[in-house]
Specification:
Layout lengths: L6 H25 L5 H23 L10 H21 L5 H8 L2 H12 L6 H18 L11 H20 L5 H23 L13 H4 L7 H27 L2 H4 L5 H14 L5 H23 L13
Helix pairs in contact: 1-10, 1-12, 2-8, 2-10, 3-7, 3-8, 4-7, 4-12, 5-7, 6-13
Length: 317
């Protein structure tokens, strides 16, 4: 069925979706001192799975779990799961503004990977935009020889893994629908988190004196109503973000919609300052400008070149 284009509505949906992602990230950062990361991932994925099943039932859409690409699907969901372990863990060590800004290097990775896996060609101008973007990443990371913060690499590695999942998704999208691809992510995250929970969920491997690994090895517990409520909101936010972003790219012009995803950085800067009194340093703001410029320029160049791998996919989901 032909979908009627409505870019203004799509932009509103993107803004709602990015607001939901911001709320999700804020709650996750607030919970990092109280919950285990794998319990968080389990609740987020299982709630998303339930909401998606209900949504498809209401829409009378087919519920399809199988895939025509089992090996690629396993690689994709494993990369996706690992990516957001790194991202959420980085929230324990970095400001929200820094983590979100560094994640937005993903369009550059997607563009580079498309050369090797999708046989795309990149001209001088897009290479220039990529270089500008990566200079921006270095400025935000602000590496120091004697005091390098290893945790600043986590959102960047997350972005790289995420880019790989987008490339794989592009290659498998002809046979596997978007909904089934999301099902695969939710199901894998639920199962692997449960397995990890059986192994370390009782807290036997936790060392209270090592505060750096508390988020990973802390005993699983849901005896706090505030934590339960927060996890429910996180699950809802993740699903709302998915629906809004997917629908926005479905009804809107991707080149017009994609740049509005950068509102996530603005919201993260605002709330990072309001809640934690944290922000980027002067170099970080310059780097942020480079990243945004490089990303938006890449979107528009790919539009002119009729390249869809970056501009037809959301940067966060």
């Amino acid at each position: 069925m032909q979908v009627k284009e409505n870019t203004p509505k799509a932009i509103i949906l993107i803004l709602i979706g990015m607001s939901a992602v911001t709320l999700q990230d804020i709650l996750i950062k607030l919970l990092t001192s109280e919950i285990n990361i794998f319990l968080l991932l389990l609740c987020r994925a299982s709630l998303g799975l339930i909401f998606l099943l209900i949504f498809l039932k209401i829409k009378k859409e087919p519920i399809i779990f199988k895939t025509k690409y089992p090996v690629l699907t396993i690689i994709r969901v494993l990369l996706f799961y690992t990516a957001f372990i790194l991202y959420f863990f980085s929230l324990t060590k970095l400001s929200l503004a820094t983590a979100v800004t560094l994640f937005f290097v993903s369009p550059f990775f997607i563009t580079i990977l498309s050369i090797f896996f999708l046989n795309e060609t990149i001209g001088f101008r897009r290479w220039f935009a990529l270089i500008i973007g990566f200079i921006g990443v270095i400025l935000v990371m602000d590496p120091k020889i004697n005091n390098f913060n290893i945790y600043t690499t986590f959102p960047v590695i997350c972005a790289f893994f995420y880019a790989l999942t987008m490339i794989i998704q592009k290659k498998t999208s002809h046979e596997d629908s978007l909904y089934s691809q999301v099902f695969h992510i939710y199901i894998f995250a639920t199962l692997i988190s449960l397995i990890i929970g059986f192994i370390i969920g009782n807290g036997n491997y936790n060392d209270p004196s090592n505060e750096h690994l508390q988020f990973i090895f802390r005993a699983w517990s849901l005896n706090n109503i505030n934590i339960i409520f927060s996890l429910l909101i996180i699950g809802i936010c993740g699903f709302v973000a998915f629906l809004c972003i997917f629908q926005a790219y479905r009804i809107g012009s991707p080149p017009s919609v994609a740049p509005f995803e950068y509102i996530l950085i603005v919201l993260s800067l605002i709330f990072s300052w309001l809640i934690w009194n944290e922000t980027l340093n002067f170099k970080g703001y310059i780097g942020l400008g480079f990243i945004v410029f490089g990303g938006i320029y890449t979107f528009f160049r790919e539009t002119k070149k009729h390249v869809q791998i970056t501009i037809d996919k959301p940067l966060r989901r």
